[in-house]
Design a protein that fits this description.
single chain, about 260 residues, alpha/beta, 2-enoyl-CoA Hydratase, Chain A, domain 1, 6-stranded mixed β-sheet, 3-stranded mixed β-sheet, about 50% helix, ClpP/crotonase-like_dom_sf, isomerase, Enoyl-CoA hydratase/carnithine racemase
Length: about 260
């Protein structure tokens, strides 16, 4: 299975398990993740959630072949019932604590989703990138809002405009992750942190999370709406077509032809 779901001692662990494709996420994988998070909300046996990948890579982001087949309906809009939207709504709306453990690259939505988790830990081999502009696109799922709040405008502008990769230590300095650990300590540490959450009063944890996040819910929804409108328009524009064509042809895109 491309997503491994396991439940033990109050912890639901969701693991990307598609290493042969660098854990690139398909619609089916998003659906599995969304369904698991929705089910966890009412499952009294789940008190904390751990999201992780493999030691070599967290996720390469969207599976671009799958993405291009399903991204745009015939009218050119984005389908907000697509599995990726279901997953992200379930993640940022989750009432239970979500712990992310990142090793290796977290690309695109692999970085975006971390901003909607509660505790984020990185291995020393982790790296992060949001290469939306490199694909002729724009930020997604409130990353333009949340990353700017975390890192400050100058550093957020550098990462979001250039789309370049940055290492775990820099992610720590910007507030994207809370701690950087040696690779082989990452998962045990994340599971131990989740176990601490499980041992605390569940109602207190949920109330604390709700109080901290409630002032951000409406701004997040507004940012997502703005981003999605632009993202949808840009997905059909010549720049994105050139970027995706170049990706599949394994060449460098030529954006100089566009004004």
């Amino acid at each position: 299975m491309d997503i491994l779901c396991s439940k033990s001692d109050g912890i639901l662990t969701l693991e990307f398990n598609r290493l042969e494709r660098k854990n690139a996420i398909t619609g089916a994988m998003y659906q599995t993740l969304a369904d698991a998070l929705v089910a966890a909300e009412t499952d009294t046996d789940v008190r904390a959630i751990v999201l992780c990948g493999k030691r070599e890579i967290f996720t390469a982001g969207n599976d671009l072949e799958d993405f291009m087949k399903t991204a745009r309906p015939k009218d050119g809009s984005l389908d907000h019932d697509r599995p990726v939207f279901q997953f992200m709504r379930a993640l940022y709306g989750c009432g239970k604590p979500v712990v992310a453990a990142v090793s290796g690259p977290a690309i695109g939505i692999g970085t975006t989703m971390l901003m909607h988790c509660d505790l984020v830990y990185a291995a020393d081999n982790a790296s992060f990138s949001m290469p939306f502009t490199q694909l002729g696109l724009c930020p997604e799922f409130a990353s333009s809002l949340l990353f700017t709040q975390l890192a400050g405008y100058p550093r957020a502008a550098e990462k979001l405009m250039l789309g370049e990769s940055f290492p775990a230590q820099e992610a720590l300095e910007m507030g994207l992750v809370s701690k950087v650990l040696p690779l082989y300590e990452l998962i045990p540490f994340a599971q131990a942190q989740a176990a601490k959450l499980v041992a605390l009063p569940a109602a207190s944890i949920r109330a604390t999370k709700r109080l901290m996040k409630q002032s951000r819910i409406e701004p997040i929804k507004a940012a997502i709406a703005d981003e999605n409108q632009l993202f949808s328009a840009m997905l059909g524009a010549p720049e994105a077509k050139e970027a995706f064509t170049a990706f599949f042809e394994k060449r460098k895109p030529d954006f100089k032809q566009f004004a």
